[in-house]
């Protein structure tokens, strides 16, 4: 594969790169190009080891995540760090799980770069709510089932279930709801949906570590989702899918986690 058709990664520039949900095969060519040519790679907790393994041999890797018992970097600290690296003429790859602009604070970092006068490029990635569902055999849309799909975050900046959500409107307008960061408040989210008229027996899938060798999918119902997720010991990162498309997994499941091909 030649890279001559790809833009040059110039010193002093930041590329905000989506790493996809985990399987390194889901990287874009631009993302692989950025990893190979970056001087500094500032990566989040959700970036998989398989993706990081594609970094060039001379790249400095900086962890900016919030998991694994390591101290967490604050958002202003991360923005200041990437701005400083760029001003020192580094090629900075800011690597985020999934897509940088989907529940990833990529917009905030890009705004900080713009304010600081640092040139940047956005490299979209496959968001977990699309790629993760594909590896679970669940199409986010299906002609007979839904004409709309809604992405929802299970908690806001304070860590609570977002209080700005109009649950009745959400429920009425969204036959399929894909919930990011939904494990912690899963019981409350399901209760709220049932409270505005969604059926207790409505199908739900809880997908842990989507696209990775330890992917684990539990299919359940709104009524039983919290208990079933707990019973199977599902750990974050987790996606929750609510709606009729979940049933298609029975026919479309294809990914065998841990299998080589
Ligand atoms: N920018 C990311 C989302 C970051 S928010 C994207 O576009 O995918 C973090 C949430 O993403 C997690 O709490 C989880 O809900 C979801 N997520 C990311 N990777 C995942 C994976 N491999 N499996 C399941 N959920 C994942």
Structure description:
There is one protein chain. This protein has 261 residues and is an alpha/beta fold. The protein folds into two domains: 3-126, Cobalt-precorrin-4 Transmethylase, domain 1 (3-Layer(aba) Sandwich), CATH 3.40.1010; 129-252, Tetrapyrrole methylase, C-terminal domain (Methyltransferase, Cobalt-precorrin-4 Transmethylase, Domain 2, 2-Layer Sandwich), CATH 3.30.950.10. Helices cover 28% and strands 19% of the residues. It contains nine helices and ten strands. The strands form two sheets. The protein has a five-stranded parallel beta sheet, with helices on both faces. A five-stranded mixed beta sheet has the order 6-7-10-8-9, with helices on both faces. Strand 6, helix 6 and strand 7 (176-180) form a beta-alpha-beta unit. Helix 3 crosses helix 4 (106-116). The longest helix is centred in the N-terminal third of the chain and has 13 residues, at 75-87. It is globular, with a radius of gyration of 19 Å. It starts with 13 loop residues before the first strand and ends in a 9-residue tail after the last helix. The model has no long low-confidence stretch (mean pLDDT 94). The structure holds S-adenosyl-L-homocysteine (SAH). The site of S-adenosyl-L-homocysteine has 24 residues, from helix 5 and strand 10.
């Amino acid at each position: 594969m030649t890279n001559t058709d790809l833009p040059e990664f110039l010193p002093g520039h930041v590329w905000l790169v989506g790493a996809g949900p985990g399987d390194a095969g889901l990287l874009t060519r631009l993302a692989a190009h950025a990893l190979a040519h970056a001087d500094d790679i500032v990566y989040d907790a959700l970036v998989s080891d398989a993706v990081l393994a594609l970094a060039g041999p001379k790249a400095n890797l900086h962890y900016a995540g919030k998991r694994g018992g390591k101290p967490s970097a604050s958002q202003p600290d991360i923005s200041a760090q990437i701005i400083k690296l760029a001003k020192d003429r580094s090629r900075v790859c800011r690597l985020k799980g999934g897509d940088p602009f989907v529940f990833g604070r990529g917009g905030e970092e890009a705004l900080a770069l713009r304010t600081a006068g640092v040139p940047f490029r956005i490299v979209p990635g496959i968001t977990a709510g699309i790629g993760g569902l594909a590896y679970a055999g669940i199409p986010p849309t299906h002609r007979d089932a839904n004409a709309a799909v809604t992405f929802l975050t299970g908690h806001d900046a304070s860590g609570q279930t977002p209080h700005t959500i109009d649950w009745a409107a959400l429920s009425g307008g969204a036959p399929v709801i894909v919930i990011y960061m939904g494990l912690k408040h899963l019981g409350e989210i399901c209760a709220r949906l049932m409270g505005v008229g969604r059926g207790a027996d409505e199908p739900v899938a809880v997908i842990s570590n989507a696209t990775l060798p330890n992917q684990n999918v539990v299919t359940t119902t709104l009524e039983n989702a919290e208990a079933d997720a707990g019973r199977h010991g599902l750990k974050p990162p987790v996606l929750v899918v609510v709606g009729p498309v979940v049933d298609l997994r029975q026919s479309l499941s294809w990914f065998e986690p841990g299998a080589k091909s």
